[in-house]
Design brief:
4 helices; about 140 residues; mainly alpha; about 75% helix
Length: about 140
């Protein structure tokens, strides 16, 4: 494990990915609200924007859920165990580009956290859309 990584890095990322489930549920709530008559007085383009942002946030939620499962498996096996096999499986499924093979654990952690940041950003934008509707 490189000097800038600690044994806690994997523990922290697993906790963060699990916590991101709450963001997914919030995004689902915002998306459902935009599709209901409850927001019927809002302009259709605004409701459409909330739904489109929600689709993106939910997609990130799915990706985060997959990463959470994979990171938990890596955590149980040890961070340096099975990375090559994982990379091979992801490449065969077309889920990983060959140029990303052999990345260090820190790069994988940063990638997972980037997914969370994108999901949170999209969900915040949805929330701003909902607030705008109520101010309409």
């Amino acid at each position: 494990m490189p000097a800038h990584e600690t044994p806690w890095s994997l523990e922290i990322v697993v906790a963060m990915l699990r916590a991101a489930r709450l963001v997914t549920w919030l995004s689902l709530l915002f998306t459902a609200a935009a599709l209901t008559p409850w927001l019927g007085g809002a302009p259709a383009p605004l409701r459409g924007m909330i739904v489109i942002l929600g689709i993106g946030a939910i997609w990130y939620g799915v990706r985060i859920a997959i990463d959470a499962h994979l990171f938990r498996r890596l955590q149980a096996a040890g961070p340096d165990t099975g990375l090559d096999a994982l990379d091979q499986a992801l490449t065969q499924l077309g889920w990983m580009k060959p140029d990303k093979l052999g990345r260090c654990m820190n790069a994988r952690i940063q990638g997972a956290l980037r997914l969370v940041r994108w999901q949170v950003g999209l969900t915040l934008a949805q929330g701003l859309g909902i607030v705008t509707v109520f101010m309409w």
